[in-house]
Design brief:
about 150 residues; alpha+beta; seven-stranded antiparallel sheet; 7 strands; globular; SUKH-3; SUKH-3 domain containing protein
Amino acid sequence: MDALMARFSQQTEHDLRAAGWEPGRRVDTTAWRNQLEATGEVHMHAAAEGFLGEFGGLKVKISGPGVSSAREPFEFNPWDLHGEEGRFAGWGARLGKSLFPIGELDGGRFFLGISELGEILLVETWVATFGIGDAALENLILGVKPDELA
């Protein structure tokens, strides 16, 4: 078994590849940084830059039953969250985390953010966590209900 196979489950790797991801993928995050940091409310920390550098721009088109909730489509496109910086700053302050917008879940019904520790969070009028790093991607793709934080 190679290192890539150990990183993601077969289903997660399949769905990420279908969205355009491949090992070693890199995209420029400068435009997202400039746009979202312009308000002064959010800061693209290293975890956000690393995550978006690998997964930014992907649109994962999934549906159907999941492990503990529906498999919902999501997109890692911070452009769509311009104007929501205050929501991320406010929740970040309340939770004691630095949150940076990374995309949307279920066609914009929910927002997605990432903490400085690589934790992927659902952000709405409440906040829930999908977990940290690759485990969070697994949970998003496999339909694992996030744990509500506030």
